[in-house]
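User: Show me an example of a complex going from sequences to structure tokens.

Assistant: Sure. Here are the input components:
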Amino acid sequence: MQNIKSYIKENQQRFIDELIALLKVPSISADSAYKADVLETANIIKLSLEKSGCDHVEICETEGYPIVYGEKIIDKNLPTVLVYGHYDVQPPDPLDLWNSPPFDPIIQKTDLHPEGVIFARGACDDKGQMYMHVKAMEYMTSQNELPCNVKFMIEGEEEVGSVNLSKFVKANREKLKNDVILISDTGMIAKDVPSITTGLRGLSYVEVEVTGPNRDLHSGLYGGAVANPINVLSKMIASLHDENNHITIPGFYDKVENLSDAERAEMAKAPFSLDAYKKSLDIDAVYGEEGYSTNERNSIRPTLDVNGIWGGYTGEGAKTVIASKAYAKISMRLVPNQDWEDITQLFKTHFENIAPKGVKVKVNPHHGGQGYVTPIDSDGYKAASKAYEQTFGKTPIPQRSGGSIPIVSLFEQELNSKTILMGFGLDSDAIHSPNEHFGIWNYLKGIETIPWFYKYFTEISR
Amino acid sequence: MQNIKSYIKENQQRFIDELIALLKVPSISADSAYKADVLETANIIKLSLEKSGCDHVEICETEGYPIVYGEKIIDKNLPTVLVYGHYDVQPPDPLDLWNSPPFDPIIQKTDLHPEGVIFARGACDDKGQMYMHVKAMEYMTSQNELPCNVKFMIEGEEEVGSVNLSKFVKANREKLKNDVILISDTGMIAKDVPSITTGLRGLSYVEVEVTGPNRDLHSGLYGGAVANPINVLSKMIASLHDENNHITIPGFYDKVENLSDAERAEMAKAPFSLDAYKKSLDIDAVYGEEGYSTNERNSIRPTLDVNGIWGGYTGEGAKTVIASKAYAKISMRLVPNQDWEDITQLFKTHFENIAPKGVKVKVNPHHGGQGYVTPIDSDGYKAASKAYEQTFGKTPIPQRSGGSIPIVSLFEQELNSKTILMGFGLDSDAIHSPNEHFGIWNYLKGIETIPWFYKYFTEISR
């Protein structure tokens, strides 16, 4: 791996150009209007994997968007690393908040990134981070440095809940067999504070519909006399948290693991400035469950948030209407041991129970996933830790993340292997938001660090 | 007035034919494509007023559609009645729900109307009801029965908010001077239950904006740790009503008039079937302020309803986002004595006060109007009541409406006179909806009843 730095230096402009080409295709899996673009992106990934030295690259059809698979098996006696990533992206709205078009990538310098960042939807999540692996693979195969077997599985439905991945994994257990799974779809604490995500939250995502009268009504003639679905929905949502911001769904906390004081003290050592956090979000105060710190609230504690709400007249001006229906999209982040299907059922039962007379309530589960924890004494964790030491000169900090990658627990269950989350993004990358970006320094540092993981993992697991 | 019945009998076919001719012109004020039709309608009204015996009939230009004015001053010492109506109509869409073309009137019998109804846009609102006054005037002048002075003011912008009427009224206070204003643009309880609308609710309409973090955030990474504007907005909206559905804004009820038990008992006499009401709306229960009946809730009590709400991801599928902003349109229906500008200020102050730390709140007032009451001991009310007794054989029921007709309080303020709302329409007439219609019985009954109002008002107010 000794010449990785010089290889990157020689090829970095091409690495950036290739990523930019990939970012130009709007592979928005949530919106069927972009179907052709999502499929085109799958094809670009197939070609990239072939160029990086993978064999048997194929576009595996599913009932939704395809999964791109490729592999390089050099010796059946050597360990196998399975790389997972996704080529689909979040919708870019609200478009008017972007400073440049989301699918017309531009490079600009920022205070945090004097080396420049690429602004585009998917720059970090996950096209940029996924493509680091493709380029690391290119280095290892072209320089004859690949120390073990590799398999790639890149899907196109991560942003819509990986709905068809589970069937694919179950049907291809042998093909996907591996010793460790490697994913870059998370972040690290700071450019000079490498970290490895060891825990992920689970997710339950539902959509609710509240129906009052059978048609929109004139608010003068009916106002005050019938249940207004928007007022009722607001009241129902408000009641899901108590005055201490605990979630009120019966049974919701039953399986939540309570960390020991020692563990919480360990967590509290991670560098964190509440002032900087508030300043970066332009808020005068944080908000959340009583008795927990900000970092605990967004990692070891389950939460409930409304992700979208709509109903009635939302256009310009005024319309005095009582809407017939109101809707919300609600998601719960779960911690390990909370089963997402159980929680979805608890939510559904509770939400239906609290509906007042005069309205009808429907709860439609969207999707979900289990939480996950990687032990820091596993081979994979140790190999990743050494790789970061090699390229950052620092031991990375193990960190629980508040996000969910539901497939990680699916992989453990179906493939019986642990996942290592080597993220190179930063909190400030604005993933899922307008002006998403990815630092060029981070992109290249990822490409540099990944081959060392292969080397150390092969050594340690022998 | 003794020969009014026989006069109507002799002329009823002509009365119906004239109304049908008027209904054939699509005077849709909201759609500029119909400008020529709206102007043609103003001209038809001018000719009708002239034929009915009015003097000095003129088309008064405004910045929008003209106001048709006409008068018959028989003696300066006699009282003057000002008739207001409008010749413009609502747009007819959705067209595909009409059983016959909206501007090609047809007469059909229905269960409720064995005498036949006219189906057409504007049949009831307000061409049919306004034209009753023109035909009543024709009777009185042709038979030399006009007991007092009359002024007509028929506008063409009622369905788009009477935007130019206020300026016209302010500029023509002397010309419009009167002792009572008479309007037929409301309904009555049933064909055999005459009623007079004595109260209208006022309105305060605001838009609110709640801002949390300065950008949309990933709900996994930030969920539970920052104030979510949608959850916060829901909580704030929920808190605007207490457990008895009283509005919690401090001072909101200070000026609300509490009706006496006797008055409430009088109101309760109006025939009303809760079962039929629930069935027509397909709801299993009504909802509203504790301690009041449905008819009280939508007439004598002030209310607060959300007319629209939006924020976050509202498209297809799922997006795990914490929105930066959430919005709602909120309107309050007010009762007489509640000043809409005071209430708007109370709302604004309260809503800003209840915002938790971690969010910023903006309240943008849209518009409003005052409520209105006609005392049942006023000369105008007494005259109207006697007129109904004369022609229906029953004392009409005074009834508060939940809707707002802002021009009525404008008239009181600028012209210093009370308005009598003698409506002959029915709830089932489907005004503003497809298949609007007006019963021929109601049309002719209106023409029969109106002259008696003139007679009794002249006698009582002398």
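The lines above are the inputs; the final block is the predicted structure for all two components together. Residues 440-461 of chain B form the longest helix (22 residues).
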